[in-house]
Structure formats: structure tokens, C-alpha cells
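Two proteins were folded this term; both appear here.
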Amino acid sequence: MNEKQGDPRHLETLDRDLARYSNLEMATSYVSRPMVGLGVSLCFILLTGIAAMSFFGQNSNPLIVVIAACLGAYMALNIGANDVANNMGPAVGAKALSMGAAIGIAVVFESAGALIAGGDVVATIAKGIIAPESIGTASVFIWAMMSALLSAALWVNLATWIGAPVSTTHSVVGGVMGAGIAAAGFAAVNWPTMSKIAASWVISPVLGGAIAAMFLWLIKSRIIYRDDKIAAARVWVPVLVGIMAGAFASYLALKGLKKIIKVDMSSALAIGVVIGVVIWALMIPIIRKQSVGLENRNKSLKTLFGIPLVVSAALLSFAHGANDVANAVGPLAAIVHASQSGDIGDAISIPTWVMIIGAFGISFGLFLFGPKLIRMVGGQITKLNPMRAYCVALSAAVTVIVASWLGLPVSSTHIAVGGVFGVGFFREWDAERRIHKARLQMPDRPKYAPEERRRRKLVRRSHFMTIIAAWVITVPAAAALSAIFFYLINTFVA
């Protein structure tokens, strides 16, 4: 027996069996991972419903509040899975942050933004999309908002599954519009507001992409293409970090801290200028010290942009938590308000417990399902390094300020992804320009075949078309789903 166990053929068989068990264990783990996420999500939704029942069990409509709370939790999970990727994707794609660190930072700052600066007053029926007087009774309004919340959550869930970052705010807007049309007809819709939202489909990504490309051009022309890159970086990196600090100071003053303090545009810009100048002065000795001993090559420059990129991602998450979360859970607050008071015409303040649902739901959704979209935004549209990702983050803050100044509605999701596209398309244009310039200097240089030229594109066209299509159909798709849900609820439940 011992001889048989020592037989090399027996050992080879044992190794093969162990390898099979190891592969089976890995496959089981891979297959069960999505089930764990679904299980944790379901537990969170159920716990939210139980908590709502405990706190509002004495309410005149406890079942409605419980169902609405569960839908709000489901919506928050989808926000974490989809929307947050726009802030953290560039930093992860540039390898300035690991996936775990990005998720940790996003969880902290998204939650802080939602709980500290979120919950600004939301006008009844999602900021004037539907005329309140057209809805009629409070019960009809409640079913309409319930349909809007469910349709928006399902649409964002579907978009996450196919790998398309979409605007959760636009999803909610589409849901409210669809339910409003089903309840009161097309005349109930505030079409001027909807036309502005439709315009933002074009304005947000184009403006974000143009500003990101402009900053990348500045970095390339003033730093990367210089003979002494390190000396150029010592001059320009403090300037760029100062611009970033000033832009984010103005951005947070305008958009992220509305609940704490009201700031007009001129005051926000003044705050940004002061903070930008201070940070610029502080960064001069810091960058000089960091650049000591660095080699005169592009790889060395990446270390100088790492920390500013991480800070910008954290600030974007805070501002997103303060803004978009309130918009997404607004229908839940409207349902609770209408079920308690029966009034659908006044402005609604989002209760703290609703914001807590939003904050925790975002955290769970990001942790469980966020990595897929983070990888897509950060590395599958175009290749990012710290300098390119920095341009994307900076463009997000600057675009919001410019749009606010011009009075244009914009989407943070569209801005961030548009910035990624802008960086990628600018790199394509710049590469073609440099090839053309080199060919003028060396006419005998062979030209690329059409197939090779297509292969060398720096932006993946398949992702570009998928994302654009998802953006275009977000509002009508959410509206159609919402109208169907409202009809079903009104027919079989109401």
C-alpha cells in the first residue's frame, strides 16, 4: 500500500484531482459572488422596510410608507452601482487608486455629502416637471411617484447590467414625466423644463469633453512636449492644482453646501479665486520637493498628479452625494409628505431618515456592484493615466460652474463620461496631427492601411455608441416604464 502511495503515477493522479477541486472551488466562488450581492441587497431593502414600519407604524398609511421606503432603498443601491463610477472611474483607471481604496473613499464622501449637505428643498412633483394642480388627489400623486421611483430604479439597474453609465436624475425625471402623463395627460407636463433637460443631453458631454481636452492640451503643450519636463512641471503643476482647488471651492459653494449656506455665483467665484491662489502658493514648494531626483520623462510626471487626482475624486463624490442623491430620493420624500399631510402643492424638505436610506444604499450598491462600471469608465472607453484622469476630474467642476453661470442644465454623469470621451478623442486628434507633421518632414514614410488606422483608434467606438444610445433613451424609457406601472397600479391596486 505504501509503495502504491509513493508511486509517481499515483501522485500525478492526486495532483490532477486536487487541481480539479481547486478549479471547481474557484468556479463556485465566481458563480456565487453575484448571489451574495443580491442577497445583501435584498436584506438591506427588507431592513429598510422593517425600520420604516417601526418608525411609521402609527401613520395613517403605513403600508404605503413601507413600500416607498423599500423602493427608495432599491433606487439608492442602483445609484451606488451606476452613478458613483463616474467620479472614481478615472482615478482607478489611472492607477492612482486601487479599487478597494476608491470604494472606501467614495463610500465615506458620498455618505458625508448626502447627510451633511444633502436634502435641500425639493419642489413638489420633482421640481416642476408636472403641474401639481393637474394630478388631482393625494392618492393619485402617491401612485404616480411610486411608479416614477420604481421605473427609475429598474432603468438604472438595467443600464448597470449592460455597462452604460446613465444619469439617475434623468431617470427620475423620465419616471415622473411618464407617471404624470398617465395620470393627467400630456398637458400636465412642463415642456419648457423638459426641453432644457433634453438640451443637457448634448450640452453636458460636449462641454465636459471640450474642457477636459483643453486642459489636456495645456498639459501636453506646456509640460509633456517640453525639453525639460521636470522644470516645466515645477511651474505649471502648482498652477493646475490651484485651478483645481479654486474650481472645486466654487463648485462646492454653489452646489454642494446649499443646505448649510446659500452662496450666489459672484461670491462662489470670489471664494474660488482666493482658495485657488492660496493653494497655488502652497503647492510651489511641495511640487519642487516632490520633483527632486525625478527623471526627465513622462512617467515621472505621473507622480506629481497622483494626490491631486485622489483629492478631486473625493470632492466630486462629496458634491455628488449632496446633489444627485437628493434628486433621486426626492420622490420618496414626496410620497411620505403626501401620505402624512395629504398636501401635494407645497415644497418638500427631505427628511433625515430618507437621506440615511440614500447614503447607506449608495454605500452598499457601490461596494457590491460598483466595480463593473468603475472599470468601464476608468479603462474600457480609453486608456487613462493620472494626467488625463486629472483633466476629466477638473473638467467636471469647471463645467458645472460654467453651466451655472450660463443658466444651462447639466448632468454630472454626462459631464464626467463626456470628459473621458473628450480626453480620448483629443489624443486621437493629437496623434494624427503628429503623424501628419512627421510625414511632411519624411515624405517617404509608409502610410498606415485603413484597417491599421481603425485599430489604432484611442476611443472604443462600441462603448461610445452604447453609452450615447443609453443617454438618449433614458428619459423616454423611464417614462414608458413609469406609465405602464401607473396604469397597472391604478387598475389592480388603487
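Next, the second protein.
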Amino acid sequence: MPREADQRREAILELAHTTGLASVEELSLRFDVTPSTIRRDLARLQQAGSLARTYGGAMAINGRPESSLRERFGEAYEAKRGLARWAAGQVVTGESLLLDAGTSTGALAHELRRMGPLRVSTVGLTALQELAGLEDVEVECLGGILRPVSLGFVGPVTEAALERRTFDRTFLGADGVTAEDGICEADERQTRLKELMMRRSAHVYVLAHAAKLGRRPFHAWAPLPDACTLVTDESATQADVAAFTRRGIEVVVVDSTGQRRS
């Protein structure tokens, strides 16, 4: 019996690391034990410093740091290239674009090097590096406070710049994305900025490879508007996609060459 309890707690901890929050009721059903047993498990994990408890019996991961941009470059590399190629295919010459910080939008910026004329505004150093020095692409850095871990700008200066502009298309990244709560990030300044970016654009795209779908690694959220497009790769399951389509959100599934599969 103690061995079984230890295995269940290890499984709970692994579940928390991969999907973020889970309620007592969800865990009770998943492991076929009573809610009181789950509460005891959570209490033990809390005492060990592995988890922090939240209102309603949910749990939050302690000590799981945000991945650095360098760490993310090798993550789902081929999938991100496919997302970027499809996204670049939506862009029309002469448009004004807004690019988020991150590796997926950095890959998009690389694809945009062959296009033009364009005006590209960005809050990410990765996109700036890709587009710097091109004659046919006017590049605007929105500035603000630089987050070293993501190499993205946030804060009131960035927000003030956005308030005075509109864009034809906005392309966003995400640490996680769910149909219910939207885009998940480590910092509330990031999610506040993403909300504003979505409001200032005629067309909104969220670039998220399949491993990001349904993930809740942090506690800051930017709700998705109904009129947006989620772009993911072909390893996404039908269940992953269905959660978004039920909400009325368009989902585009692409392969590594950027060809649409659904």
C-alpha cells in the first residue's frame, strides 16, 4: 500500500509538470481513489516542497523555471519551421505586421526575409536580429523592459507604443495555450501585452506546436478572442484540436513544410 501511494504521488507530480494545474476531483477520477486520499497526497507533496496548494484544492508547481530562449531553440524545431512557413504564406505585400517575442515568431521573421515591402513591429530581439538590415522590410522595435529569459520587451513603454498603432496581422507565441483560458505565460506583463497586441490587430494568429496545447505551466493568462487562428503541427491529437474548435476558434494543422493538413 505505501508503495502504491508513492507511485501515485510521483504520477501526480509528473502530471503537474506536464499539464500544470489539476483539481482534486480530476485527480480522484484519474487515479480511482477518494478525494480525501488525493488531498492527503497533495499535503504530503506540499510538505516535501514539491507543490504549492491553491484555492479549491488545485496545485501549482514550485521550482519549475521558465525555459530560456536558448533552451527553446532546439524544441520542436521542424514543427516550428512548418508553422512559420504557413504563417508567412498568409502575409500580403505591403502589410503592417506585429511579431511577438519567442522562437516560433523568430522562425517566422526568418521566412519574412524573402518578402517585402513590409513593415514589421516586434517586441522580440530574435525577430529584430532576423530582419535587421533588409532594404524591403521596415523594422520597428517597440522597446520597453527587456526580459532576459525570453529576450522580449514588456512594460508600460511597450504598451504605450502599441496603444497608438494598429496592424494587419499579429503573430503570437505561447508557453501554453488552452481553449478555456487562452495563452499561458510566466509573467503577467507578458499576458497583458499579448491582450493588447490582439486588440490592435485585424487578424490574430497563435503559433503553438502540439506540445503547447492544453498546457498550464504558469498562472498568467491572456484570453483568446473568438476571431483568431491557432496554428499547430500535425502531431496534435483530435482531442487537442476539438477543444478549440468547440469554442469557435479556427485551428490550422500544418506539416513541417508549411502545408495545411486540416
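Confidence is low (pLDDT under 50) at residues 54-63. The radius of gyration is 20 Å. These notes refer to the second protein only.
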